[in-house]
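re: ur question from yesterday

yeah so i grabbed the chain u mentioned. its 397 aa long if i counted rite. heres the sequnce exactly as i have it in my notes:
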Amino acid sequence: MPWKETCAMNQKVKMIGDYLSKDYTISQLSEMYEVSRKTIYKWTGRYRTEGPAGLEEKSKAPRSHPTATPLRVAREIVAAKLSHERWGPKKVLAWLDAHHQGERWPAPSTIGDILKREGLVRCRKRKRRTPPYTQPFQEVIRPNAVWSADFKGQFRTGDGKLCYPLTISDNYGRYLLLCGGLSHPTHEEVKPSFEEAFKEYGLPEAIRTDNGAPFASVGLGGLTKLSVWFIKLGIRPERIEPGHPEQNGRHERMHRSLKEATANPPKRDIKEQQRAFDEFAQEYNDERPHEALGQKTPASCYRPSLRPHPVKVPKVEYHGDVIVRQVRHNGEIKWRGELIYLSQALAGEPVALKQTDGHLWEVRFSSYPIGTLNELTSKITPILRRKGGEVLPMCPV
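ran it thru and got these structure tokens back, copy pasting raw so excuse formatting
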């Protein structure tokens, strides 16, 4: 049995006093203090050889550590972490495997322990996350099936000017296609950035964004000049559910790394900030292993699209049993003697109307239904989002 819980040291001191008095035998001391004879012999023996200090509890840790990580290996691990400060143990291990082939490295848990001992791990508060809301987005089963685009929150550079980081990435391989610091989040600045990406990487099948300008509007079909341009290029515009950034989780996770690496703190001016963005993109694409990719780099999983950016944007054409109307410069069409407003974003574009039920006509731009025209009231009703269903109001049929 153990020493009484009042205070083990006090019990030991009292036992030694009784032992030194020679009034009690070892068996009697064992019975009085409710410990084994072996324990009495152990502590009296320590007292004879070490004095009172021998009564202190000694560490039970082994004197040697035959399985401990060699110092040389630990130094390599620390050096890899110092050169990639935002990486965790798994990415550090993948990088070491790739750059030191033939070397045996500890498990990620051991690497994490080494980094913790060196003070190189920052503890994060665990966040409660909302379960994702599922929608039938375009399946991400190959490169360029879906690109994501967004603005990482604006901030001021050291010279006081606002910087709006526009990012575009491929959802399949997490490849960061573009990261540019814009001075305004407008169509005039955003479109040239997409043209640059399209010319270098070709066209994706779909582009997923949030519901903010210039990607979407509150107008009919949520259309903007940018999304109209996407449709004419044969790109499907997808928008996540309002208030649910986790539906674009791959892209949002990249944004967190981007902010830590390039804007904490911001650089002196936009030119220096862009250099930081470019350096981040190079490391993110070519060096940083990604757990969801089996610790491969995005560059090793991405290839450009086989659909090149056209020299001239194709015109929208319609076939079949539809009536075509040209949208006027003010966003209106003429229908049965009435002027009906659709969207300024469609100015100069043809739209198709197809009768669906008596006095109701479906209005489309290209293959995208954008509203329903009631010819009795000469009013157009937007396509509504179907609960738990399709990505609307821009979902091709």
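noticed a couple things. The chain is about 30% helix and 15% strand. also The chain has four domains: 8-55, 71-117, 146-301, 323-382.
anyway ttyl
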